[in-house]
Each structure stands twice: as C-alpha cells, then as structure tokens.
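Question thread 4412

I'm putting together a teaching handout and wanted feedback from people who do this every day. The idea is simple: show students a protein as raw sequence, then show them the structure tokens that encode its fold, then repeat with a second protein so they can compare. Below is the first pair exactly as I plan to print it.
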Amino acid sequence: MHCPFCRHSDSRVIDSRTSDDGLSIRRRRQCPECGGRFTTLETASLGVIKRSGVVEPFSRDKVVAGVRKACQGRPVTDGDLALLAQQVEEAVRQTGQSQIDANEIGLSILGPLRALDEVAYLRFASVYQAFDSLEDFESAIGDLRADHERVAEAEPEL
C-alpha cells in the first residue's frame, strides 16, 4: 500500500475493523517514512461473467435497476430495492465463488423478489426463467397459489 502523502511503498497497519455488514475491512495505517496516517477499505472483489464472456465487477446498482423495471407501478420503495440488492449480494458471496454468471445472479434475485412482490416476481421470472408460453405463466401462478394454500393450512384457526 503506497502512502498517499509521500508515495512510500510501505505502510504499517495500526488498527483493523470489520464493517457492520461484514463485507469489508477498514484498516488504519501509518507510513514509516513520513509518519502520515490514512485509512484503507478492503473488500473481496466479485466478478460477474456476462453472456459475451466479459467479466465486470458486481454492482448492487445494476441489480436495483433490473428489478426496478419489474417493480414499475408496484408498491415497492427504493429502500425495499436496496435491501433486496443487499440480500442478493450476500447470497452470491456465500457461494464462495469469485466470479459468477450473470444469469445466476438473475436467478438469485427470484427468491427475495417473490417475498417482496409477487407480481414483480412474475415479471422478472418471465425473463430469467425464459417463459415461452401462457402455460409457463400458469405454472408459476399455480406454484404461488399452492404456497398461499400451504401457509393458510399451517396457520392455526382462532
């Protein structure tokens, strides 16, 4: 790590702390040459493999942008979308892979989106699960209805 003040090629770590979300480490450093102190933030990089084969860094903003289209006209807030993007990033990082296929990210969005808004889920799923016909939509809606029935049966009657 180069000192931002004198460009010396070494520094000493004085303090290390994990961020609140656990995804990064904040390190307080001191330059042995000039004595200047500075902070670095270290995160594990996560690459996304696009269909073209190009690898680019994971971006929560891109997750939000893609899901926002599916949520258009639905009662979903920006805070809801930010939380969904965080959940997706955490799920993707838990796979332990440093690079993940873009389609896998799309599929990992489905679970949290289904819990957030079922209509937006159907819109998004129609793209990422490649719905080809009305039967695909009917099947997805049937699955949602079956889940609702299971929840209703599990709830105790008052």
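The second pair follows. I'd like the answer to focus on this one:
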Amino acid sequence: MRRLSLSSRLALLFAACTAVVSLFAGVLFNRASEAHFIELDQQQLDGQLIGLRRALQDVQPGQREARLADELSRQADLALRITGSDGQREYDSSTQIPEVLPPQSGLTTVSHEGTEYRVLNAPLYPDKPDSPQLTLLLDITHHQHFLQRMQHLIWLTVGLSALATALLGAWAARSGLRPLRRMSAVARGISAHSLNARLPEAQMPPELAEMAHSFNAMLGRLDDSFQRLSAFSADIAHELRTPLSNLLTHTQVTLTRPRPIEDYREALHSNLEELQWMAQLVNDMLYLAKADHGLLMPKREALELADESDVLLEFFAPLAEDAGVTLNREGHARIEGDRSMLRRALSNLLDNALRFTPAAGSVRLSIVDQPQAVQVSIENTGDGISAELLPRLFDRFYRADPARQEGSSEHAGLGLAITQSIVRAHGGEIRCESDRGWTRFVIELPKGK
C-alpha cells in the first residue's frame, strides 16, 4: 500500500481537526438551542396555566367550556385536557390529543402521529387535594423541524469545512514544505563535480534553518574529503612514479648487455632499496587506512614517559651531534598506552625537529603532568612555519617545503599523519605552534584510569 505524503498527512490532519471542532461547536449550539426552546415552552405553559386558573376560578359549570374555548382561541398551538379527581376525563379541547399522556407532574415531551408536544401537568386548584388535573399540550413540531434543519446544517458545515480545510491545508503544507523540496533538488544534483552547491540558509524558515546548516556542513565535509581523496590519489601516484621509473630504467640499462656478476649484484642492491622504500610506503598507507576505520587498538600498559623519551633521545644523539644540535628533556609523567606506537609517534616528531633545526640549534622535549592529561611538547629552533600552512601539516604527503625531493625513501610526507593517527587512537590531540623562531608540536594524552 502506497504511503501518504507528508503534505497529504498534514491536510488530512487539518481536516480532521476542523471537523472535530466544527462538530463539537455544532453539538453545543444544538444543545443550547434545545435548552432555550424548553425554557421558552416552560414559560409559555406556565403563563397559560395561570391564565386558565384565573379564568376558571369562579366560573359556573355550564359556562366552563365557553370560557375555556374563549381562552384557548388565543393560542392556536395549545390544547387542554381536564381530568377529574377520580381519573375520568372531563374535557378535551381537541380530538388530536393523544389518548395516553404522562401522568407525572412537571414538563414532559410526547410524540404522537408525527406531532411533537410539550406536556405540562398541574392541578387546577393547587390548595385542594381533590382538585381536577389540568394537562396543557403545546405543539412544538416547528421547534423540532428547526432543530433538525440545524442538525443537517451542522453536518453540511462539518463536511464542507473539512473539505475546505483539507484543500487549504494541502496548499499550505505544500507551500510550507517547499524548502524541503529545494533541499531534495540540491541533493539530487550532488555529484563529484558539484559538491560546492549550498542551500540558502537565510531564506529557510527557523524550523529548517538548522537542518539546512547541517546539510551545508555535510556538503562542506564531503567536498573537503573528496578534494583530499583526489589529492591523496595524485600524491600516491606522484610518490610511486619516481621509484618505479628508477627500477624500470635501472633494470633496462642493466639488461642491455652482458655484465659481470658484481654489476648485477649492485643493480639488485639498488633495486632492493627502492623496493624497500615502496614496501614501507605501502605499509604506512595500510597503517593509516586502519586508523581511518578505527582499527588501531593500542595496548594499555603503564609507561614512564621520561624513560621512553630518554631511549629515543639516546637513539637520535649521534645524528644530533653530527648536525651540531643540542638535545635535552625536562619533566616526567606516567600514562597508560602502547609503547611501540608512542615511540613511533615521538620518533617521527624528533626526526622532523632534527631535520629542520639549523646548526648550533636545539631540540627540547618537555613533559608536563597536568591533573587530567599529560602534555608532551617537542620544539626546535629554526625558521618558523607560516600560519596558513599549520592546518595542513598533518595532511598525508604534505610537505611545507615546496621542494618535494621525489623518490626520497625517508620523507614521503606521512610521518605527521601517522603521528596524528597514533595520538588520536590513544584519545589525545596534537597541534603545531610556530612563533618567534620556535616550532612546537604539542601532544595532549589522557592519563587513563
């Protein structure tokens, strides 16, 4: 069964609400009208009762019928029956009066042969126990016809108002949902070449402005991710092109003529270096892919960051000595984390710091134990990094140095991306700051339980 559209549902809801309200108002008006007619009939019958009692107060028996006929002639829709104290009928003003009438005192309603009567029973002489009983009958058929016509009008009004409200509700819902159709049109037009399309948030109603903002933000993220993916694919091809070209050229040159075994051995060693670099690049890519899918699961073990840092500083000490760079460490703290992963992250940062620190410069590793986290910063002297480049430092294959050094097996531009993945896998964050001749990478790691 086909589901109703949102516009149709709103239209039906409006129609149902209008019908219920109209019906409720109509029923109230009908009840109020009926109560009003009963009150008017009661007043009229009470007035006639007083007049009849006055007319019959001192009348002689032979003159009673003439007096009653004269009194009743003034009210065409009024009839009278007089019953003696013994229950015998003494007088009927009309042959249309029903044979059987309700005996109880007060006002009642009787239907007889298509005619509605309002009946009032009362004694002729209230102060005498054996007084004859007066029964006044007021024809109220015209009242009932009015009430029936009003009921028909109520049902007609309910139906017409429900139909009108349904049509107006459908139009209003369709007009009100126009921004959603616009969003749908934009979504249908989205492709890899049109991710820059945006919804006009300023023209959206308040209820949809937040949705439009979220939709635009999603498109922005998709556009950014697609651009990064495109650049990533180009960078992979760029990085692999040079070593593959070297391998092909070197192999082709080696095979152009017979050579001594030493030349073949040297060619294989050269090719092995290129293949090892390509294997390392592929491994790094797989590592980042695991990080993207949340598959990096660091082991949790108690670590003393000062000891781990000293091991790395000792490893880099010969390189620093050759470059004339001073290494030092300050502070200590304990965290829970994966030793090999954290060593790799700190090693990448130290390697970067040493490469970009000029002679006679210094690299400093600081550990600050904070109440909720541990802050590790690695800073080095040298040329700073411009502010517009800082947000891109952790992009894959990105180098702040415009000279790409194609085919370099050591610096493919993935070190900072891997470092960021490791830090985030531990629930931390990393950022870069550069100011006044210092470049600083700051890592904040939670202490754990």
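Top answer:
Good format. For the second protein you could add a caption like this: The mean pLDDT is 83. DSSP finds nine helices and twelve strands in the chain.
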